[in-house]
Fold HAD hydrolase, family IA, variant 1.
Amino acid sequence: MSKYKYLLFDIDDTLINFEKSFHNCAAKVLELGGCEITDRNVRRFKELNDIVWFSSGLEDIYEPYIKENYHRLYHKYVEDSLDKAINEFGLKGNYDDLMTCFNHSLGEEAYVNENAVKVLNILKDKYTLAVATNGLTIIQPYKLTKLPKVFDKIFISEEMNCMKPYPEYFKYITGYFNCQPEECLMIGDSLVNDIGGAGNSGIDSCYYNPGYLKKKTEIQPVYEIHDFVELLDIV
């Protein structure tokens, strides 16, 4: 019998493929803004988003300023990303409608990772399943639209006023479930936020690494999988 009772899943690049989901989202926004949907335009939209993301500093999660202002900066990143697209492509229409489309389409057009649905449906009757994600309440819930409704709780950093990889994030989760850290398993793609954060909080981790990426950090997961079905051999 597995020692785990609570399985915590990251969303982006774990349950869903963010890049493919973003491409679908970009096409929706371009269409609404009256711009031709071409592979070139969709790729350019993604390039602009990446520029804004890396300039936002949000990846420097351990920087005190980023920690203190994470969600305010996250909102600004979303706004700046759309603004760049509007200027680049000359998108027309109501700004609020474009923003709503941008936020919601990231989820409603989500590309679910292979075998995620199958595995979640197998696990739902055996474990308490939860989502543990960094992000905004206006975006993250929509990313679960194409997944089965199997989650007992969705933990979104903005609602919690704390984020992965900080111990208070994981302590919030164990407090909510009134459980011990060793009863939980965190499944995610980020060695820093998911794997390192869980490990520093006494929670075992499973690194989802479908691309067989080489680790560029000393952080080591307890488990590593390359396909969701491999999770069934662990739990």
